[in-house]
């Protein structure tokens, strides 16, 4: 397990004001002489309604009080919290609210960078780092939207068959390398984390290039052509 203090020390050698409260991270730091807002989670915490609201509030506060300030999301979560209480209170709406806040920040001109420094699973990842302007991961990170045993139960495809498919198809396989091939990750950081963050902020694009990256890297071949066909109203057929 990679602790957030170690990661923060490498990302911000000049220091930071990040604090932890009930597995929720928030604060700020200087990156290349400019302020950056930082939010995130730690200890593989599941995203329940409290943390979803805390993250959303921190993002909205940055949008209101610091227009245009970049936002770094540090991701370490086992996914959406699976409790009857959260389900009854509408955890799906809280997660959607968080995703909308990230989208609002991007539309308002904030560069949002996600960094999976430990674990990223299911809804906790989808509504944070995965919809940032760009998402990166450390080499030792664990990333998956759904484990193969759970996927087998849902799809009714034998787990042995999914395991076989995962050897060649990144859609079925976990890990940062496979998400890099699919375009979900823009890169894997190994070494100078402070320098990597500076470059990521400088290189961030306003649009969403994940589908194009997945096509170029050979890990997600149909998403971009289908989206382009829908946009222009033409037919698309597999090569």
From TrEMBL:
UniProt keyword list: Lyase
SUPFAM superfamilies, per database record: ClpP/crotonase (SSF52096)
Membrane-spanning intervals of the chain: none
InterPro entries: ClpP/crotonase-like_dom_sf, Malonate_gamma
GO function term, MF aspect, one: lyase activity
GO biological process: carbohydrate metabolic process
Pfam family, one: MdcE
This enzyme's EC code(s): 4.1.1.87
Catalytic EC class: lyase
NCBIfam families named among the record's database cross-references: malonate_gamma
Name this protein carries in UniProt: Malonate decarboxylase gamma subunit
């Amino acid at each position: 397990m990679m602790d957030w203090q170690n990661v923060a020390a490498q990302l911000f050698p000049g220091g930071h004001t990040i604090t932890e409260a009930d597995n929720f991270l928030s604060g700020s730091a200087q990156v290349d002489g400019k302020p950056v807002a930082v939010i995130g989670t730690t200890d593989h915490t599941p995203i329940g309604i409290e943390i979803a609201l805390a993250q959303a509030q921190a993002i909205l506060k940055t949008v209101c009080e610091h227009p245009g300030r970049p936002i770094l999301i540090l991701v370490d979560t086992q996914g959406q919290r699976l409790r009857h209480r959260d389900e009854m209170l509408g955890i799906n709406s809280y997660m959607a609210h968080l995703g909308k806040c990230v989208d609002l920040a991007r539309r308002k001109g904030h560069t949002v960078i996600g960094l999976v420094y430990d674990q990223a699973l299911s809804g906790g990842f989808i509504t944070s780092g995965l919809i940032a302007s760009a998402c990166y991961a450390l080499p030792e990170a664990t990333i998956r939207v759904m484990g193969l045993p759970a996927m087998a139960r849902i799809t009714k495809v034998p787990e042995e068959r999914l395991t076989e498919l995962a050897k060649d198809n990144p859609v079925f396989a976990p890990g940062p390398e496979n998400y890099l091939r699919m375009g979900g990750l823009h890169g894997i950081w190994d070494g100078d984390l402070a320098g990597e963050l500076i470059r990521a902020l400088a290189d961030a694009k306003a649009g969403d290039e994940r589908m194009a990256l997945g096509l170029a890297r050979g890990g997600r071949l149909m998403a971009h052509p289908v989206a382009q066909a829908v946009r222009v109203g033409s037919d698309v057929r597999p090569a």
